[in-house]
Every structure is written in structure tokens, then in C-alpha cells.
Amino acid sequence: MTTHSTVRDVTERIRERSRTLRSAYLQRLNEIRHRERGSDRMGCANVAHAVAGIPANDKLKVVTERAPNIGVVTAYNDMLSAHAPFQGYPDIVKHEARRHAATAQVAGGVPAMCDGVTQGTPGMELSLFSRDVIAMGTAVALTHDMFDAALLLGVCDKIVPGLLIGALHFGHLPMVFVPAGPMPSGLSNSAKAKVREQAAQGLVGRQGLLDAEMQAYHAQGTCTFYGTANSNQMLLEAMGLHVPGTAFIQPGDSMREALTREAVRTVLGRASDKAYAVPPIGELVDERVIVNAMVALLATGGSTNHLIHWVAVARAAGILIDWNDFSELSEVVPLLTRVYPNGTADVNEFQAAGGPGFVIGELLDAGLMHADVQTVRAGGIREYANIPSLAATPSDEHALSWHAAQPTKNDAVARPVASPFSATGGLKVLVGNLGRSVIKVSSVPDDRHVIEAPARVFDSQGALQDAFKAGELQRDVVCVVRWQGPQANGMPELHKLTPPLSVLQGKGFRVALVTDGRMSGASGKVPAAIHVSPEAAAGGPLAKVRDGDLIRLDSIAGTLTVLVPDDEWAQREVAKQPEEQRTDNAHGLGRELFAGMRRNALTAEEGACTWL
């Protein structure tokens, strides 16, 4: 299938834009790749330190036999339900490596915070920047420089982008990502959202809300809605960085250990029982692979956080992308899935309907993904249109086989390109005198794609919640929540605003959110112009908005404007962040340690990077 002209043109534009940066990146990788292996290159004391803690037989393999040594970077902790299964993975990895005359060492661990725990609390102000901390932690682990390949264990929101950014700074190594899968379905996401809306209205008390939440989040594995964590897994499949079909196999499934062992065999170059040298990750992740990830995000209605994260990921590989690239692709990439918050199904239902394999196969057949890319598998990206299953044999209880994903088994959850939920990916860039922002409209009702209403300006999400509880928002309104960007307070997600805004919209009011903060797509059915750049703290236009200003959010035309005469707007004073709020954001719960990151953070469209 010929690659779609828009996909081809966007890729070529990215390639041309990135030519100098990418060339310098690849040159650095090439120089590193031709060094002697670690235990031969390093001093004797260095090598002795590196192997002092491992069994004697492994020492012999590393030092004398020069066997491949796999570095494992793990984001394990049992605060995150999605990461708790990783506790036993290193032992599995080491056992499988030894079966193939190789060794493995846990090179290091990286922090991994749960946004579900910190939503609406001061700790959430560390969340976005934790991505760059994880990238640095990955670099610290791999800096031991004794490894011939690496496995990266992570699933959730900032963790996968952080691991990937760190990995790309060690782009000379072959690497495979190893997930853990989603938790079994509990209380449906729709039922959970309903209880939250009832709680926002005071119709359900704390115990009722707690009961519902604990029925929804109840076991090991990722949360079952299609937020950033599960979008991460879809994108890694589309980039060819997983063992194919690994993303949404549950932690308790008998296939889970088999797939983890297959990741070891894959990174060692023994995929499908054939010798295949896995390309260095920095070579593998090229412009086409980045575009494939962008297409997969759009086709599945994934998290808007990736309009920040994948800009940073691409930059780590010497590739420059921007929101215009996403928006142009969105015009030709159809929406193939309805998974909460863009539908009622959860990721387990998505997996049962065909999962990533079905979607990738459809996109490849339609020419909407680049088919001629390298992956960690010998068969290329087409292998990722396959579904794994156990094929137990007398000699190997963990043997796997793959078969092509079948046509969708539930067209309420997943559909083919020929009959999509929408002809476009549902993502728009909004541009106007309020700056640049993005909006996810894949689940916004058609009659809410254009909102024009008076502004109510808030300096925090708490202030909006207080106004809602006081009954001050029972009208058509555009809620402007500012001082929520990277430089102001670390750009927390504002999920706590979804229930009250949904309640207002449910009452028939025309409402919208405009903010320089994040929503992760969790705004769902409420129109939300997010990531507004430049942010208010950098003197952006949101700092000029006043209560009562008429704001027009037009996701059809792609505009975000305040309807104030140009001369008046030009002369209007730029507000300053309240001193009390600025001081509060800088202190407590470790926020002092992130002052340099807030100060140096780039804009959301530049990936909110703190390391450039």
C-alpha cells in the first residue's frame, strides 16, 4: 500500500526541519557504537565494581566469555498498581538471559508517581517534571556503561516518555520496552464518572464516592480507561518497541511471563528463532517511526499529554515536531476506536475487540502508517498487526505464536478505516489572540464544537470548584483557569474540573474550559482548550483576560479568541500571578527542589523540556 500523501508530506517536512539536528545525533551514536565493549574498555577496578554483586557464573560470562549483558531499568514500586507486577520481572529476565548464554543486571530504578493519587493536590505540581527526572534516572542507570542492550520496565503517564527520552540519549544500544498490562475491569468508567458528577452536586457522600472509586481501581495493572498510561502502550506498539501484542495482556494472564521472556530473546537478537540484530534504538526511532506514533494516537483518540511528551521524545532523537504536524495528520487519520473517555468501553474491551493489532493492521492497509520502518522484530511493523497466544510445547511452556488480528469483534468499540467513528482524528490546534492551544473533540457533542460565552477568570482550579459549589456558574460560561503552565506551577492536570463542568453542561449550559494547564483528554464531552501557549506566567494573553470578556472557542475553524476590540486588547495590562499563590507553589512537598525546572521549562508546544 502506498503511503498516504499527507502522511508522507508531514514526514518529509519533519525530516527537512530536523536534518541538521538529526544528523548530529546519528553521528554521535555512530562514534559510540564502535567502541570496545564495556568490560574490555574499562579499567580493572571499574569492571570489578560492576560485577562484584552478581553470581560467579555471571561474572565469568561477562568478563571472560564476553557474553551479552542486558541492563534493566525498572520503574517498579507498589504505589502504582500498574507497576506493582514488575517486582518479580528482574528474576524472570535474568533466568531467561542465562538460558541464552547471556546475563542481565538491574542497572537502576527510576521514580514513578501515580497521578491518580496526586490529582488535585500539591504533589501533582511535580508530575510533569517527573518525566525529565525519570529520563535523568534512566541516564544515571545506563551510565554504568557495561551493557550490550537494555530492557525498560514502565507503563504509566510520565514514566514511559521519561524512559524513552533517557533511552534515546543512549541511542547506541538495542532496547525493548516491557509492560505489565491493565487491571481486570471493575466498576465501569461511565458509572464511576456518574458517581463523581453526583458527588460534585452533593448527591453522594464521601463513603459512596470512595466505594465507587475502590470498585473501579481494585487490582494490579493500569487503570482501565484510555488515558496517558494506556496511550503510552498503544504508541510503543506503533513504534515497534514492544514484543508485538504485549500492551494490554493483563498481569495475571498466563501469557504475561511468556511475553516478558520473549522480550529478553528479542533484545538478544533471537526473535522468532531467527538471528536478528535489533537496531540501536536511536537509529530505529526515526521520523517515520515518530509519525507512526502520532497517527496511532490520533486513530485511537489518545491522551493529549502526548502533544507535549512526544515533542520531547522526538527532540531526544534529534527530531523536531510541532502541533501543526499533529493537526495536519488529524485531518486525514480516522478515529477507529471508542474507549473511555471517548466512549463507554475500557481497554480490556478494546483488547477483546482486536486491540492495537487490529488498529495497526487497518492503518497499514490504508497507507496511514509507514510500513518500511525498523522495529525490534525481524518482520517489521507488520508483525504488530498480530495477536499473541501461548503455544505450549513439551520443551517450552512459554512458547508463543502469533496470528493476524481478525476483523473487529465489536464495532461499538473498534471499527475499520472504511467505516470509522469519525473521518478525522478529533484533534485540533486552536490559534487566535489568546495564543495557541489544542482541543480534543473526539467525544465532544457536535453542537458543542463552537462555544461563545462570557469569561469567568480563575487563578486556580480550587477557585473554580468553590465557585461551582456556591452556585455562581449556573449560566453559559467560559472558565479561564490560568497560572497552570510549566513555569507557573509545573503544569498539573486539572481532572478535578471535569465533574463540575460536566454537570453544568448536563444542565444545558454552554460551557468550556480555557487553560494553560493540562487535562490529558479527560475533559471528555466538555470543550477544553488546553496547553494555551504562551502561558500566563510568561506574559501570555490569558493574563489579560477579565471577567465578562466574550470568548469564542471554535474547534471547527480552529480559533480561540477573546472578542475585545484590537486597540483595547493591545493596551490592556498584563496581570501578574498573585504573590501568595506564587509563593505557595514554590514551597512544600518537595516543590522547592523543582524551582530550576519551573524556571527553565520550555513551552508546552516545545515539550515543556527542562533539559535543553
Automatic annotation (TrEMBL):
EC class of the enzyme, as a word: lyase
Cofactor: [4Fe-4S] cluster
Pathway: Carbohydrate metabolism; Entner-Doudoroff pathway
Record carries keyword Ubl conjugation: no
InterPro entries named among the record's database cross-references: 6-phosphgluc_deHydtase, Dihydro-acid_dehy_C, DiOHA_6PGluconate_deHydtase_CS, ILV_EDD_C, ILV_EDD_N, IlvD/EDD_N
Record text on cofactor binding: Binds 1 [4Fe-4S] cluster.
EC number: 4.2.1.12
Coiled-coil spans in chain: none
Keyword 4Fe-4S: yes
Gene Ontology MF term list: phosphogluconate dehydratase activity
Domain Dihydroxy-acid/6-phosphogluconate dehydratase C-terminal stretches: 413-608
Catalytic activity line of the entry: 6-phospho-D-gluconate = 2-dehydro-3-deoxy-6-phospho-D-gluconate + H2O
Residues covered by the Dihydroxy-acid/6-phosphogluconate dehydratase N-terminal domain: 68-382
Residues bound to [4Fe-4S] cluster: C156, C223
Keywords: 4Fe-4S, Carbohydrate metabolism, Gluconate utilization, Iron, Iron-sulfur, Lyase, Metal-binding
Family according to the record: Belongs to the IlvD/Edd family.
Known function: Catalyzes the dehydration of 6-phospho-D-gluconate to 2-dehydro-3-deoxy-6-phospho-D-gluconate.
Alphabetical list of PANTHER family matching this protein: D-XYLONATE DEHYDRATASE, PHOSPHOGLUCONATE DEHYDRATASE
Protein known as: Phosphogluconate dehydratase
Gene: edd
